[in-house]
Design goal:
CATH architecture of the largest domain: 2-Layer Sandwich
Strand content: 25-35%
Structural class: alpha+beta
CATH topology of the largest domain: Uridine Diphospho-n-acetylenolpyruvylglucosamine Reductase, domain 3
Number of strands: 20
Number of helices: 8
Helix content: 10-25%
CATH class of the largest domain: Alpha Beta
Distance between the termini: 24 Å
Order of helices and strands: EEHEEEEEHEEEEHEHHEEHEEHEEEHE
Largest sheet: 5 strands, antiparallel
Radius of gyration: 20 Å
Length: 336
Amino acid sequence: MINQNISLKDYNTFGIEASAKHFARFSSIKQLAELFLDKRFQEPKLIIGGGSNLLLTKNFNGLVLKNEIIGKEIVLENDYEIILKVGAGEIWHNFVLFCVESNYGGIENMSLIPGSVGAAPMQNIGAYGVELKSVFVSLEAFHIETGKVHSFDKEKCKFGYRDSIFKNSHKDQYIITSVTFRLTKKPTFNTSYGAINQELERMGVTELSVKSISDAVINIRRTKLPDPAKIGNSGSFFKNPVLTNKVFANIKQNHPEIASYPNGENHTKVAAGWLIEQAGWKGKTIGNYGVHKNQALVLVNYGGATGSEIYELSQKIIDSVKANFGVELQREVNII
């Protein structure tokens, strides 16, 4: 059923008040195809999942489609691994918890990331030293122009840091309907990134497991990141910039304490949160919105802020970091 003039406040984790001219849900490829073929609604379309990677700066004068394709299907299983095909409308963290409870390793470091399974490969989500591409097998996507479903393997997706083909040359051309993952039953654990080891020690963990890693990540994230149900936000608003080693060395000369991580042989990843904090933005409040007090990467809506205000704040931060460090931050979120 297609509804008219629907508020999108409950469909974006920023809690921004904006409306859609038309709104519908789909739970199958057949329903999706029917919505695109409906001649009554030949208008701009916006696909949403969990609404966590979205900043609405205006009303949407078109049809908003909410992806609710769910389900998990075993493609292959043996003593060492399991390959699962998962509906794009599944909530990402719920899928992570399912894998943790089943002792399937590979995505435990990405616990508590907001959003849907379908959104995960679009920006190659990652956390605490692990990226989605490390467990990705393939995805299926509905081609808007032809109505056909195409399959994309890892090579075709062209994954980069918080990036894929669906954010570049194929942007707005496809709707992801399912994602297939390769998970291990003999997990190896990645605890080298961030404060995972310290948190495991605080928890008294003596033997690593998929669950202990997941629990540690959840604990860390909850201390740093605000709950969208209480304070509107989209998680990390900016990407961590990746610089050539030469550019990084020049910055480090003036700022030897800069937070950074090696990124291959020729590049270094710099913590955007550190840059923002050093530029004086951490915890800054402007009326009913601002920068979170515990994590400078997170912009927050304390209630009633507009998407335009959040966007303008992000631009001021970008300009400020550029002036202070010569580094231009990039937004992670999708701006509408």
